[in-house]
Fold:
Amino acid sequence: MKKTLNKHLILSLAALPVLATSLTGCGGGGDSTKTQISVFNYNGGFGSDWLNGVKERFEAKFAETSFEEGKTGVEIQINPLKTSYSSQEIALGDFDVYFHEHSFYDELRSVNAIADISDIVTETSEFDNKTIASKLSKSQEDFLGVTEGGSKHYYALPHYMGGSGLIYNIELFDKYGLYFIDRNGEPYPADESLNFIGNYPDPTVLKKSTGPDGYFDTEDDGLPATYQEFFMLCRQIVQKQAIPLVWNGYRNYNYTNAFINALVTQAEGSEKMMLNYALNGTDDDLVKTSATEPDDGVVPVSSLESVVIEDSVAGRANVQRQVGKYYALDFFSTIVKNSSDWTNGSGYNNGYTHTAAQQDFIWGSKASGAKDIAMLVEGVWAMNEGKSCFTDMEARFGSEYGINKRNFGWMNLPRPNQSYVDAHIKNTISDNLSTLCFASSKLKNGKLQAAKKFIQFVNSDNELVAYTKSTNTMKALKYTMTPEELNELSPFGRSLHNYVQSENTDIIFPYSHAATYAASPDSFTEPNAYRAKVGTTTYAFPINAFHSNSPVTAWNYFKGLL
Amino acid sequence: MKTALKRSNHLPKERLSIFAIVLLVVLAIYSVSLVGLLLFSLFTSFQDPGIFTFAKAFSWPEEFHFNIGDLFSADKLSILGRWNGKIHKYSFVELFGISLWYSLTSGVVKTLVPCLVAYACARYRFKSSAIIYTLVIIVMAIPVVGNQPSEFKVVNFFGLYNNLFFIWVLKFSFLGMYFLVFYEHFRSMPDSFSEAAKIDGASNTQILLRIGLPLARNVFLTVFIIEFIVFWNDYQTPLIYLKDYPTLAYEMYNAVIFGSQPGLDKIPQKAGATIVILLPALALFLAFHKKLLGNLTIGGIKG
Amino acid sequence: MAKMTNRKKQSLKDLGFYIALLALPLLQFAIFYVVVNFNSFVLAFEKVTIEGGVRSEIFTFDNFVNVFRWIGGESPNWTGNPSDIITLPFWTLMWNSVKSWFICNAISIPLALLFSYYIFKKFFGSSFFRVMLFLPSIISTVVLCGIFIWFDSSFAAFMQNTFNVTIEGGGFLSDTKTQYMTVMFFYIWLNFGTTVLLFSNKMASISTEVLEAAKVDGANQWREFTSIVLPQTFSTLSVFLITGIAGLFVCQYNVFSFFGSRAIDSTSLSTFGYWFFSNVYDKANQMTPSAALFPLSAIGLVLTMIAVPLTLVIRHLLTKYGPSED
Structure:
C-alpha cells in the first residue's frame, strides 16, 4: 500500500509541470471586424517595447478607416520572436510584415518572398510630408532600389542600425581622468601614467588629445587614438584597480569577430571597406603575398600594393589582404595575450552569457566584491538589452542608477597608428545585422494596402524619433531630433546619436548585388568572414586560434584568411 | 541442472574488507557529487536573476525567488515551430505533448520490434534465425561513420523528414543490444510451454500473445522504460529531423541552456527550467527503478 | 502419412508466422541501413560543380584522393570553397579520438566492474548506489552539461574569492590547459549507468556453489573478484570492448553539448565523432545538399574501412585469448 502510494506521489510530481501550464491561458484570435496585420519582430537586444507604442498610435489613427470590405479599423498583432527565418521560410508568408534580422535582400526577391513597396517609398508620406527615399543613404538606395522595367523598385527598407564596437563607462573615465592629454607632437613620456589627465593635480588646465578622429573639440577627445594608446589605457585602468574590458564567453566568437570587423572598418574607411562586399574598385593597401612579418608591427609601404578588385572568388581573396585586417588581428591577439590582466577572465567561459557581461559592466563595483569595468565589447543594442539591470539598480540604490542617469557612451574606436589619425579618415561603422523591414508577397488588396501604410507609418519622422526614445538606439535612416527630444534619451543614447549623426561619421551598408556576394551572402557576415587556414588547420574564429594551447600569430592568421 | 544451481543474488551479506571499504568511500563520494550537482541547480534556481553572478552562486540568497514557478507562463518556455505548415508558438504543454508522442512511439517500436524479431529467431530454428543473429552482432561491431548526409536524403525521399506522425519509422529497427537481451530471454524459455499450448490447439499468434510476451513482460517493461527515457532526452534527432516540431529536449538545448531568450537568459531562470524538465524522467525512474535495474542481462558475442 | 501432412502444415504455419514477424523489420533494415549506407557509398563518389550558374553532381574519385592526401598530412580544398569544411589535421583528430577512447575505457570499465562487484555483493548501501550510478542515464545530457558549466564557473569564482586561486578562463572548461581533462572527467563520471547495470546483473547469474567453494578455499574478496567474478563477466565485458572500438570514430564525449560547434577547430577537443557532427548537422537538413556533404561521405567511408578490421581483430583476440566462463 505504502509502495503504491509512493509511486502515485512520484508520478504526480511528474505531472505537475503539465497541470500547472494547462492552467495558463493562451491568447489568440483578435478582432475580426478589423483588418488584422500580423507583425513579426525579431525580439533580440532591441526588444519589442518600441513596437507597442507604434501599434497604439497606428490603430488610433486608422480606427475609422476601411482597408477591406466589411471591416473598419486595423489591428496590429505583434509577434516578438527571437528567431531568424531563411528566405524560403519567409516566402511561406506566415506573417504579414516583418522586422527581421539576418535577411538577404536578393535571396528574398529571388524566391518572391517580399512585396513591392515602391509606392510608399517614393510618394510623399501623409505622416511627415517627406518621402522615405529621401531618408536613405546613397549606398542604401543603390542596394535596395533595383531597376526593373526602366524604373526603380523597392522591396524592403532598412530597420535598425546594428553596429558593433565598444561601450565605455564614462563615469569611470571621468572618475580617474582616463583621457589622454594633448602632447602637441611630443613623444610619449617614459612614465605612461603621465599621458592621462587624471594623474595631474589640476586636469582642467590640460587639453585633451584629439582622439581617433584627429580633430579637437569633438566627442572623442581624450579617447585612445591609436592601438598603442589603447594598450596604455588598459595598463592604466589596471593600475586603478578596474578591469579594462570584457566580452561574453558563451558567444565570444560572434562578438569578438564583430569587434575585429569594427576595427577593420574604422581602419579602412567606408570606401575600402565596401570593397569587401561590392568587389569592384581598386584597393591600394593590400599586403603583398610575398611580404614578411614586420618587426615593429607596422607594415612598410614597400609591402603594400594596389590591386583592382574583381567580382570573383579571386577578388574576394585579394580583398582579404587589406592591411587593416592585419592590424586589427594583431590588436586583438595582443588583447587575448593579456586577457588575464585586461579582462575579467570570463571571456572564454561557456557559462558567461552576454547578459551576464552586461550586468557586470552596468553594476560594476556596486556588485559586492566586483570591480568597475571600463569597456564592454558589444553592439549598439546592449544598453537596451540590459535595461533590467538598470531597473534593478534603481530599485536598490535610488534613481541616480536608472538608465537615464548612468553615463555610458559609444566609443570611437582607435586606429592602427598615428598615420591613420593624421589622414583624418572619417569615423566608420558597419551596419552589420542585415536588418530589413518588408511585407509578405502573399498579401493582396486591402490587406496589402494596410501593411504598406503601416510600414510607411513606422518610417515616418515621429515614429523614428519615438523608436530612438524607446530603445536609445538609432534607426538606419536619416532623421533629426530636437534638443528637447535628445534630452529624453539616456546619456548612452545621446552619445550614440551624436556619433551616428556626426558629419564626420560614415555608416557602411555592407551588402551588394555582386555575383560573388549574392552566391553566398552568409559567408560575408562577421561570424564567417574571418576564417583562416594556418598550416593544415582551418580556424573558424580568430579567438579560438589566439587562445589555444598553441596560439597562432596574428601575421600567420592574416596570411591564411580565406 | 539450472534449478540445482542457486543464483548468487541469494548470497548472505558479507562483512566489509579493506577493499570493500575503499569502494564504499569512492561510491559515497560519487553519490554526494551527483546529488550535489542537482541540488546546486535547485539552489541556483532560487537565486535572484537580477543580481546573480557566479561569485554569488554558493551564497545564501538575500531573497528567495521562485524561478521555477515563473517558467510556467506561456511566454517563457515556449518555442517557435510549424504546425500543419503554419507558424506556431508552442506552449510548454504542447512541447510536453510532442516529447511524449516522440518518446512513447519511438520507445514502443524500439522495444517491440527487437522483442518480436528476437522471439522469432529464438523460438524458430530456421537458418535465417542464425543469419539475423549474426547480422545484429556484425552491425553492432561494425562502426558506420558519417552516413548522416545519406540518411537525410533517404528520410526525405520517403517523406519522413519533419513528419511528426511517422517519426517512429526511423526507430523501427531490431538492431542493437536489446535484441540480444530479448534473444537470451526467449532462448531460456522452456519449450514445454509452447509445446503444451500447441497440443491444446493454440496458434503461433496465441502462443506469442498469451505465453511469450507475458513471460517477457518484465524485460519488455524495463527495456521500454530505458528507451523512453533515452528518447525523452534525445535532442539531436529532433534537431535534424523534426525541425517544425520541437521537443522539450531540443528546447533545453536550443533555448534554455544555450539560448538567450528573454525571460530565460539568466542563470537562475535556466536552472529552474532544468528542474522542470528533468522531473518527469526522474519521477518515472524513481517509480520503477527496481524493475529497471533488475531485469537485464546480456550474453556474450564471442560465439 | 497424415502425421507427416500435419507436421508439414504446422511447419508451413510456423514459417508463415515467422515471415510475418520479420517482414517489416527486415524491410526497415533494408531501407534505413542497407540503402542508406549504399547511398552514402554513392555520395562519396560524387561532387558538386556549378557551371554557368547550373549546379550538377558528377561522378568523381576526387573525394577519395583528397581523403588520402589528408591522411598524408595535406590540407585539401574539399569543395572549391575553402571554408565549406573546417579542417583539422587528420592525425590530430585520430590522436584525439584514440586518446579519448583509451582514457575513458581504461578508467570507466575497471571502475564499473568494481562498482558492479560491490553491488553484486550487496555491501552496505548497494541498492542506493545502484540507483545513483544509473541516475545520470535518466537525466538529459544537455541538462547535466548545462548544470556542470554553471557549477564549474561558480567553483572557479569561489576559489578566486575565497582562496585567491585563479582558474584561468573562469572555469576548468574554459582553461585550455584543463579543458580536455574536464571533458573526459565529465564523460567518465556520468556514464556508468548501463555498464554497471549489465555487469551487476551478469554477476548475479554466477552460481553460489562456486563462490562458496572459493570461500572455503580461503579466497578473500579481491581474489574472488579477480579469479571468479571477472572471468565469469568476461562475455559482457567483451561486448563493451567491441562496441567501444566500434564507437572510436563516432563518440563525441559530450563536446557538442558543451560547446556546440564552436570547438570545431580545437586541436585538443575535436574527435572524429564531434568534428563530423559539427560539420554535418547544419548542412544535412538542407533541401539542396551542401557541396560539403559529398567529401564528408567519403571521409566516413574511409573511417569505416579503418574501424571494421580493427573491430574484427579485437573481437578475434578477445575470443581467442579471453577467459572462458566455464
Summary: The longest strand of chain B covers residues 79-83. The mean pLDDT of chain B is 82.
